[in-house]
Amino acid sequence: MTPHHLIILPVLLPLLCGAALVPLTQARHRFKFALSYASVLGQLITACLLMAQADNGAWPGDIGVYLAANWAAPFGIALVADRLSALMLLLTAVLALAALHYAMQRWSRIGVHFHPLFQFLLMGINGAFLTHDLFNLFVFFEVMLAASYGLVLHGYNAERLRASMQYIAVNLVAALMFLLGTALIYATTGTLNLADVALRISTMAPGEIGLLKTGVAVLALAFLTKAAMWPLGFWLPTTYAAASPPVAAMLVLMTKVGAYVILRLWLLLFGDEEGAAAGFGYDALVWGGMATIVFGAAGMLSTDSAGRMAGYSAIVSSGTLLAVIGYGQPSLVTAGLYYLIGSTLAVAAFLLLIELIDRIRTPGAAILALTMEAWAVEDTPDEPRGKGVPAAMAFLSLAFAACALMIAGLPPLSGFVAKFGMFHALLNPEAGSGAIGPTGWTLMALIIVAGLVALISMLRYGVRTFWAAEMVTPPKLQLSEVAPVSVLLLLSVAMTVQARPLFDYLGRASADLHDPGKYARRVLGEPALPGPTSRPEAP
Amino acid sequence: MEAVLSLAIGIVFGAGIWLLLRPRSFQVLAGLMLMSYAVNLFIFVMGRVWLDRPPFTPAGTVPDPSVLADPLPQALVLTAIVIGFATTALYLVVMIGARGITGTDHVDGEEPET
Amino acid sequence: MKGLIRRWLPHLVVSTVLCALWLLLNQAFDAASILLGAVLGIAVPLLVERLQPLGYPRMRAPLTLLRLLRMATVEIARSCFNVSRIILFSDHRTVNSQFIRVPLSIRDPYGLAMLSCLLNMTPGTVWVEILPERYELSLHVFDLHDEGWWINTIKMRYEQPLIDIFETHP
Amino acid sequence: MATLLELSIAYALVCVLVAMMLCALRLLIGPSAHDRVLALDTLWIAGMLLALVLGIRFGTQVYFEVAVLIALIGFVSTVALAKFLMRGEIIE
Amino acid sequence: MSGIPDLPAWAALPVSLLLILGATIALIGALGLLRLPTFYKRIHGPAITITFGAGCILLASMLYFTATQARLVIHEVIIAVFLLMTAPVVSMLIMRAAVYRDLRARKHKAGATAGGVYTIVEEETAGSTPPGKR
Amino acid sequence: MLTLLVLLPFIGALIAACLPNSSRDRPAAVAGAVTLAALVLAIHAFGRVGEGEVLYQRYEWLPGFGLDLVLRMDGLAWVFTVMVLGIGLLVLLYARYYMSRRDPVPRFFSYMLAFMGSMLGVVLSGNLIQLVVFWELTSVTSFLLIGYWQHRNDARRGARMAFTVTTIGGLCLLAGVLILGHIVGSYDLDAVLAAGDQVRAHDWYRSVLVLVALGALSKSAQFPFHFWLPHAMAAPTPVSAYLHSATMVKAGVFLLIRLWPTLSGTPEWTWILGAAGVCTLLIGSFFAIFQNDMKGLLAYSTISHLGLIVVLLSIGSPLSVVAAIFHTMNHAVFKASLFMAVGIIDHETGTRDMLELRGLGRAMPYTAALAIVASAAMAGVPLLNGFLSKEMFFSETMQVGGTENWWMSYAAVAMGVFSVAYSLRFISVFFGPLAKNLPQDPHEPPRWMRFPVECLVVLCIVVGIMPERAVGTVLAVAAQSVLGAPLPEYSLAIWHGFNLPLMMSAAALAGGVLFYVVLRRYAGLAERDEVPVLYRLNGAQAYESTLLALSQAAAWLLHWTGTRRLQLQLLVLMVAMVAVPLLVVRPLPVLPALRLSALDPLFALLWVIGAACAVGAAWQAKYHRLVALILVGGTGVVTSLTFLWMSAPDLALTQLMVETVTTVLILLGLRWLPPRLAPAGLAAHIPPSTWLRRARDGAVALAGGLGLAAATYALLSSKPPPTISDFYLERALTEGGGANVVNVLLVDFRGFDTLAEITVLSIVALTVYALLRRFRPAPESVAIPVQQASDVDPAATESPAQQAGSGYLMVPAIYLRFLLPFMGIIAVYFFMRGHNLPGGGFVAGLIFATALIVQYMVAGTDWVESKLRLRPHRWIGWGLATACGTGLGAWLFGYPFLTSHTAHLNLPLLGEIHIPSAFVFDLGVFLVVVGTTMLILVALAHQSLRSHRAAPGATRSTIPPAKEIA
């Protein structure tokens, strides 16, 4: 029996790569980029392999457990790779590859330390997806957040500094809440391993559980801040609009980390039918999620800036996810996961696209001169050099249209399929769970209206940009910028075409999630290897 | 002991919240520092209060968990202190950066109207 | 041999002190500790050499030093009680706190440092700085009665021994 | 004898704590920045004494390290503060 | 309170006395810090805490542990040495900072001019703004 | 085959899109060829469809949701397919000549083909969801077509309007179809069609009906959604001809016919559709009369005719369905030709304004003749196709409401009157003297531009004269596919004898002529430019104001429920932290009574200090930052001592070190924050709003503090659960190899945490460094501090190295430099013993870094760096690599990452020495901590160098760049 080292690779690869990148000077940019790129490629391959293993019965129960430092589960830190986390890893790697590729020509060249920070960000995200230990989750959250602070600030200018003041402050407070929640959970259950917590909750007396619930509530606030639930997510549009495009694209994923953790936590801790804690907080999630949808939709409608629009659309998608999680129905979760992937790709592609689109409105030279005058040394990247790709306008408009369709959930792209999946699940609940109630109707109506609102605002923006703009010269786009956007969009097309296998996979993932007992058995049952021959007495 | 600690944590946390809600970035920084003291203490006491029972298990003795302080919260607090230190440094630098480039130390990077 | 020592053990005294510190800290006197202490004692001064432009002090008259220390200890105890008395029982407004100038003739940096240590450790006096124009020590005295006495005492009882210790070259 | 020692330890604890309290008062009322710096430094020293007394009270040497560290490092922040007051910046 | 009962009387008495003395001195020092009217007087208060207070308590500790552990425990010396090396720096720097701050701020009553070593230069006001309070 | 049918246009669209912008004939040829091919395919299929067979083609897509791709062609679908393709072909031919040389033609044809494909998709869908997909695609492509002349504001506006309205409808349709699918249990069209009774009996029938109707009516431009259609006339005329005759608007009608078997036959059906249809046909035809734009007139006439069809469908009798299908076909034919005729006029004269156009019959007699025939068909003149279906309509209206209630018939006649009137108005442009001053000199169009019109007009006449032979079979097949066999009795004949419908027709014709004459004579029809009576009924205006109101409402909502200000966000967070547990948690934790006996007075005294410092800091932080910093430091001391007191010496050490480094750090930062001076008269007048805000914040702070205190107290007085810590205590020594359990936890049990934690440190250091490289100091703080400029200070002019070497810092410098090796030893000491006693890599690293920083403080950056190259980046890199590499080493032994091992060395003289791998791991921690601390502090310290080098009056742009940290 050998440990499945593959599971920890998504954390180690970026860490090692980042460590190697730190001492390299900016002059060796090409080498740094190559290293970084190789690492992301490695992560992509790892994620694919993990996904294959999770789905092909390589592990008992299709859940891979890795005991870091070889300590059995509730005591040591266990990393858990199941279908969902493998998928999230893949999504991360794909997005990272796109963002990194996009940053090749310009964004990674300005400032210093883009690459190590990027790698550390990936390490944090991957770790957060993998870990099954509450405090370890905190630490990986911090890795992720700290790297994101650095990356949001990347390309020093006033707007970014303003935005990151907010971003950092809010997230620091959220981190404190995370700690408070974790501490409360530890104090009441005496353990940090999620599966173990779940196990212990089921045996707790109703009288004891108040403090635990308080802890979980505070903890959830931290995640919900990350996931930008109303009213905790006001930082998001500002930050998205201010961050440089590749970073903003990665930020999209980070909101999803919040939702992911909520999903995992809730299904694990409160997914059981019985027990004193069953069903805790689901209503709050549903209604909070729906409020978030309303808020995000209103935001989309009332803003003119594309960056903020993308931010609000991320809020809408976050709200949808939270409501879906809170609705507590496995088939809906399946569709919600599909929606998660689709909307992440769409919003990320849109964020990358915005910068390219902006080149239509204000051709590069003008904007450069303007900023140079205002802030003599801001990190505004050089105009792309060399030849641009042909048919730039056609690409931009097509890509924009695709983004708009996906964000609005119109056919024929993945956005529609996701929406359809959710509606179908809402209308046709599994046997025994009863008919759709007023909450379901409201949710459905909200999702439809939000899609519509997204459409109206995207349309307004698109018409104004593509049709009403006085075009001087067609924008100059680099292949390295066009390719990632195209890939993200093509992936979304692929998601539509291959919806069936994807839905099947997600259905299995969701079934896993809804079986907390299985996690407990697998995670706590994984034995540590018999100790290295001698673990002697200390002197 | 318990009551004093609870009150102490509460007061420090409250002072931190008050500062956190102030408009100037340095106030927010100080607030964050105070809050992290409170939170660290809070995590720490989650292992309950132990006097003179540091979690050392010297060689030659059989450790009796019931008379030693809970080491886990201590380890967690250590990590939290380190991370708190790092984030304080970061916030500080962002704060002075923002002060320089925006010309104000208001947390929003611009003076409020009126 | 001597060259070797100079090469690898240029700061013998400091190395010894550091080794002693290590042993004291570890409260151990076994071979491993001594070895490690010796290694550290030798290596650390070499590592920080570049940051020590003055090198390390060379002391000549250990007996004088001991005498000085004994005197200082007594003085410290005495002033301690004086200051305590004043804090507890005197009318604080009538305490005559003043700065005084003490012309100095000691030049050796370590000697100066030692002097400042002794003066500062003695309650009731605080070393402020050396006024550069006439190389005078600016000293703050908690309860000044007689400026001349202070200058005299410092010159005679503190400075002179220190000059003997640090500045007398064989 | 044991009671005498216990009493004296308790007395010492009270004294040190009251001393810390007085320092804290000075810290609060100021009035000038250098007063506060001085008070903070004294607070550290008193803290060190507290560690030592606690060490005697609990009869363990674990507290000794903290005392060593306060003695060696505690002054750094004071020096930094003083230099800041004096020069306006601490590293030139 | 583990070690206390097995302390022999020859040690307990001096330890107690040293503790009481040291603590009292420390308290007096702090009292001085609080009660003395000007900074230049206040700075002399803590000095006794550092020298005599700390010295006594260190001695007590040494004695105590030597007695309880039946071996020579003198590593408190390290603390003493470090205190000796750091305390002068602190008082020197604070003192100097205070003097120059008061001179710059032209605080006549602060006591910086006592003894006439330092004088406040009045005409300097022209042109330069008074330094801000930090 | 069906797949090919649907795909062909899309393929053509792709090809056309790839053609260069300058090409003109090629895209048209591609489009034509593709359409022709598809048409041939479709006609070929009639062989089977005509026999009542239904063609299927099925692809699995999402069987789990009952969502397969099904292409299904029955009679109805066939009719629509041929209509779409046939008229499409003609329109494409027409467009070839119509489009101007300046327009990007490939794009046009590409859009056209894409639209055609979507339309075919709608028509051929055998799955409701798939239908919705194509439905929305038609919206998208029609948006592109309407907005084709994107530089024109009206085109953009029209396109957006059409798109928005039809998409809203589409979303409603989606909802309706989903519910329908839920009722039936399948989205498959066959299943749905077969489940009519089940659907009609279901509770949710009404919502399905309303939602589907919303979709269909908005697409078919029915009142009250009709307003988008006239605005869509901003599109090029071929687009209008295509969209508004045979395709886009007919999609709605198609849907209603399609779902007729399932949904019709209830009063709700009749009332909803009937009301909408009647309103539409009256309003549409009335508005049409008063349009001055020829296309506008046609647009309203289209609306009215669609209303007619909807009314027919609403009636619900099988015969009316036949009539509806028939009229759909007829309308497509004559309306397409009319649009194209208008296009010709527009193209050749440069205007479509009926106020200007006059006597075109003279200039283009042939076109005029065609247009007159077509408009006669539109007016329902006998012997033309329009007459037949209108006749059927009249006869069906009489069925509604029995024998007493004639309102529907009156409405029908009124509509007939109006339609005759607007047809007359339309053809009036051909009569009279030829207008002068037209933008262009009118003449006949090119031969092939007129050809499509000719075809269609011939079709009008053929169908009008011999209906049974021309379309009888087709109509029967189509009707049969909807109604099922047997078909109701009907006869497609021109002459049914003198009956009421004929009287109505006659009345309508006569009335129409009369009405037109009256209007022309007395109401100044030829001059007026607004619709009488109903001009207030401006749907477009309503649409725009709705959108505006929506945006404003959204902004309002955002203003009241959102904020961009940090303070409010933090307030919300804090309130949430207090409120959410109170609101959500049931049962609330119980708070045990406070026992005063449990109060330890000494410990309380300690915390009186801590709390006082904290509160003092809160009070002073605004104007006295330094004071606040010192006070926070006071709390830090107390915290540190608390850790010490409560058996956590490791924490105390760490807290102490962090405290020191943080102080230094903030002092370095404070240099760059210009002082905040309390404004004079600060306390004099504080506005009540400020007090209110403070009270609010105070309340929140109080609540938060109390909340946390309560939680702490409740926890501390509750029974501790069995924790996992016992495991650590028991195994730390035996298996972790260390006596200090906390340290073993950090480097072994939970070493993974520590690895991530040092990564956080590294990240922050890198961020700080990157940020400070581009740091712009505040303008007020660029100059060197006043302290250094003051004449009072003799050291003002000395460099830091001089100060330390011989100046005023000399004596302190001696101490501080002398201390350096001692600090080094202490660092090593704490590092070495960490595993067994308090200490460890972190504390050691901080001590080491502090020792170095002290040197910086003494002698300045330049001096230290001239003596010592620190390269903090390398420390960080090596540290991470060491820690990570130690973990990876376990792989070599076949163990998971970070598994600890111990090397045993048996050295002479020294005996056995154990070197645990955790020790190496800790070394990595040490390296990272030193590296990061140094990087952060030194990067900050370097900023001073820049300001020193800058001239006193330096501005932002003249500040020298930061010195690289080596």
Automatic annotation (TrEMBL), chain B:
UniProt keyword list: Cell membrane, Membrane, Transmembrane, Transmembrane helix
InterPro entries the UniProt entry points to: CPA3_antiporter_subunitC, NUOK/Mnh_C1-like
Which segments cross the bilayer?
6-21, 28-51, 71-94
Q: Does the keyword Ligase apply?
A: no
Q: Does the keyword Hydrolase apply?
A: no
Subcellular location per UniProt equals: Cell membrane
Mind telling me which Pfam families this protein's record contains? Oxidored_q2 (PF00420)
Q: Which domain of life is it from?
A: Bacteria
How this chain sits in the membrane, per its record, is: Multi-pass membrane protein
Its name, as the record gives it, is Na+/H+ antiporter subunit C
Organism (species): Massilia niabensis
TrEMBL record, chain D:
Q: Which residues cross the membrane?
A: 6-25, 37-56, 62-86
Intracellular or extracellular location(s) = Cell membrane
- Specify the signal sequence span: none
Keyword Transport found: yes
Q: How does it sit in the membrane?
A: Multi-pass membrane protein
The record's family statement is: Belongs to the CPA3 antiporters (TC 2.A.63) subunit F family.
> What's the protein name?
K+/H+ antiporter subunit F
What is the species of this protein?
Massilia niabensis
UniProtKB/TrEMBL annotation, chain E:
- A Pfam family the protein falls into: PhaG_MnhG_YufB
TM spans, by residue? Answer: 12-34, 46-65, 77-99
Q: Which UniProt keywords apply?
A: Membrane, Transmembrane, Transmembrane helix
Q: Which InterPro entries match?
A: PhaG_MnhG_YufB (IPR005133)
- NCBIfam families documented for this protein: CPA3_mnhG_phaG
State the PANTHER family in the record. Answer: ANTIPORTER SUBUNIT MNHG2-RELATED
Q: What is this protein called?
A: Monovalent cation/H(+) antiporter subunit G
Q: Which organism is it from?
A: Massilia niabensis
Its lineage opens with: Bacteria, Pseudomonadati, Pseudomonadota, Betaproteobacteria, Burkholderiales
TrEMBL record, chain F:
Q: Which residues form the NADH-Ubiquinone oxidoreductase (complex I) chain 5 N-terminal domain?
A: 64-109
Domain MrpA C-terminal/MbhD residue range list: 611-674
Q: Does the keyword ATP-binding apply?
A: no
Q: Where in the cell is it found?
A: Cell membrane; Membrane
| All residue ranges annotated as the MrpA C-terminal/MbhE domain in the record | 692-788
**Residues annotated as domain Na+/H+ antiporter MnhB subunit-related protein:** 813-934
Predominantly, its location class is membrane
For the NADH:quinone oxidoreductase/Mrp antiporter transmembrane domain, which residue ranges apply? 125-413
Membrane-spanning residues: 75-96, 108-126, 132-149, 161-184, 204-229, 241-263, 269-290, 297-315, 321-345, 366-387, 407-434, 455-478, 498-519, 570-589, 601-619, 626-646, 652-673, 698-716, 754-772, 814-832, 844-864, 876-898, 918-940
Q: Does the keyword Transmembrane helix apply?
A: yes
Name the record gives this protein? Monovalent cation/H+ antiporter subunit A
Species, as recorded: Massilia niabensis
